[in-house]
Amino acid sequence: MKRNILIIPGDGIGQEVTTWGKQVLESIAQKYNHEFVFDEAIMGHTAIEATGDPLPQETLEKAKASDAILFGAIGHAKYDNDPSAKVRPEQGLLKIRKELGLYANLRPILLFDELLDASSLKPEVLRGTDILFFRELTGDVYFGEKKRNEDNTFASDLMNYHRYEVERIARKAYEAARTRSKKLCSVDKANVLETSRLWREVVQEIAAEYPDVETEHMFIDNAAMQLVKNPKKFDVVLTANLFGDILTDEASQIAGSMGMLASASIGDGTGFFEPIHGSAHDIAGQNKANPLASILSVALMLDIAFGLQDEAKAVTSAVADTLKAGWRTGDIANSSTPQDKILGTNEMGQKVLE
Amino acid sequence: MKRNILIIPGDGIGQEVTTWGKQVLESIAQKYNHEFVFDEAIMGHTAIEATGDPLPQETLEKAKASDAILFGAIGHAKYDNDPSAKVRPEQGLLKIRKELGLYANLRPILLFDELLDASSLKPEVLRGTDILFFRELTGDVYFGEKKRNEDNTFASDLMNYHRYEVERIARKAYEAARTRSKKLCSVDKANVLETSRLWREVVQEIAAEYPDVETEHMFIDNAAMQLVKNPKKFDVVLTANLFGDILTDEASQIAGSMGMLASASIGDGTGFFEPIHGSAHDIAGQNKANPLASILSVALMLDIAFGLQDEAKAVTSAVADTLKAGWRTGDIANSSTPQDKILGTNEMGQKVLE
Ligand SMILES: CC(C)[C@H](C(=O)O)[C@@H](O)C(=O)O
Ligand SMILES: CC(C)[C@H](C(=O)O)[C@@H](O)C(=O)O
């Protein structure tokens, strides 16, 4: 199989972790006799520094022309401390999501037995947890009209959904639920928000098309609570952009660390694969970042974008074996991890490759 | 001291739990020689059934005329399953918050040592946690304009903040931070939302007035994650209405159960005291609800509304002693709790009174 893969390292630790994602892709190509052709492009703070634009036209064109994209991370403390900055790294990510029509963000919460102890949650609460989030990614308050009045006394963002936006992601989530344990939980705030009431109505309608799937509706505040209390009760979780952003970061603690979570953004065209962690500028360039989320994003790419299930499994197994052998990066180590088992980014990437 | 207290039981378990809040108030009055005059009023589903209006005028007038309000809970499954219902219980709660100008919702995450084991989080992660949330309560996407187009293909809610709304709650939070460990974390989504950028700018300005308080700004997704990972790192948390709704429910798992968390809503006039738990219709009328959150709301009322610190401490100590003696309601029991130590609502209320 021949495929064109665009690597967008982005900001902070993005460069370090995508390096390993790419190496894993190269090793898979060799072993399974595929031809992966790589190209690279800039986005975010890195792109602002180079061109003034967080998503240069060239990056967007390369993205559209590729078969899949491996992305690193975005963001820089500079902008976080300056809320009045007009040009911001995150605009690049939001724009590429919109331009590529990446309306469904899949975030599997994959729990490796070896990491049961790395979590702040009790192992007996965690054991057996297996959640697949469907986060809507191109609508909601993320993309609604933003206003600020001239004397800076008022600001607003329009939270909104169109019926078709809810329908298409709901269908994707129900299809997935069918192949899993046939349980779907839709999360909203329908007791307060009109957007959520429309969301709930549409999900109720789509639910009727999937009578074999058991549907539950839950308020976001309750869901944020239940996810800590009893994560096992969730299987497929379907939710809006903002609520999905919050819940999946929270759920990263189930997997032991943000450094373990991969995500796939899909929609109308090219798929986009990225860790859910951020740019982590505090540890960037120090060989400390966990490359496993980027490597697991590669597994999602192989599976979802290329339909290469065996290859995807080989990657996930390599990660599992590395963990089984006791190797850890700092974020997934705990007080009982021997010092000589704690690796840097590169050493961890190397172990998985082997 | 003479005070007029309005009891609004609301829906579901509200009646059962406020009964015990009231009895504790009566016992405090007797012991400390105060005169508490009680009145009662309806709100929510209960009020819709009786009058068609979730917040009848009479309730609002009584509320404005009282010195403090003890509220139970609101909501009913009937409306949750019918997103198109025009009249909804929650409108009563939102309206009274707005009408009484209750812009600051204080939610202390009080951790009783005895309940360390009731949580899904590891005791070593929890021990020493003491968080005070300041949730803005009368602005944000809760109160912005709601729209639905006629053919039901689109819905929206306006997320918005005025500068003065951020200023006044920020000042309250900073004042509280001064009396605690002088650390404040403001939570927003300034990398995406204009509302959050205004929020962050204003908090930065107010922060300059409190140079003795250390300020941190955190994105909501990160905060939802950190709260599970390392709750001890938080002290005063300041956030907007929607984010506060989500984070405080999530944080309830730190305290072992939603059934333990009290809140105080304050602002321009009469204060409003309520558990953060909901109406829990599934267990209503079964003598199963945990009355401790209502009783702890009474402690907040005595402290914040009446300035009666000793009386407030007496209530909190009574709760602590009851837990120390091993008594539990179902929600805070765990597998090692002896069956004969698990009490119903009334028995638990009685133990605290004693
Ligand atoms: C960087 C930011 C804009 C982004 C989001 O909020 O969507 C990130 O948190 C994510 O979850 O991918
Ligand atoms: C019942 C609901 C409207 C309310 C809210 O969202 O504010 C509740 O969840 C709360 O936290 O008090």
From TrEMBL, chains A, B:
Annotated coiled-coil positions are none
List the catalytic activities from the record.
(2R,3S)-3-isopropylmalate + NAD(+) = 4-methyl-2-oxopentanoate + CO2 + NADH
* Keywords, ordered alphabetically: Amino-acid biosynthesis, Branched-chain amino acid biosynthesis, Cytoplasm, Leucine biosynthesis, Magnesium, Manganese, Metal-binding, NAD, Oxidoreductase
Q: What terms describe the molecular function in GO for this protein?
A: 3-isopropylmalate dehydrogenase activity
Report the domain of life of the source organism: Bacteria
Q: Does the keyword Repeat apply?
A: no
- Asked whether the UniProt record includes Phosphoprotein among its keywords, one would answer no
Which residues are marked as site: Important for catalysis? Y142, K189
Pfam families for the chain: Iso_dh
Binding of Mg(2+) occurs at D221, D245, D249
What EC number(s) does the entry state?
1.1.1.85
- Do you know which SMART domains this protein is assigned to? Iso_dh
Q: How is the cofactor bound?
A: Binds 1 Mg(2+) or Mn(2+) ion per subunit.
Concerning NCBIfam families, the annotation shows: leuB
Task: Give the UniProt family note.
Answer: Belongs to the isocitrate and isopropylmalate dehydrogenases family. LeuB type 1 subfamily.
Q: What does this protein do?
A: Catalyzes the oxidation of 3-carboxy-2-hydroxy-4-methylpentanoate (3-isopropylmalate) to 3-carboxy-4-methyl-2-oxopentanoate. The product decarboxylates to 4-methyl-2 oxopentanoate.
Specify the protein name.
3-isopropylmalate dehydrogenase
Organism name: Sphingobacterium tabacisoli
Upper lineage: Bacteria, Pseudomonadati, Bacteroidota, Sphingobacteriia, Sphingobacteriales
* Name of the gene this protein is made from: leuB
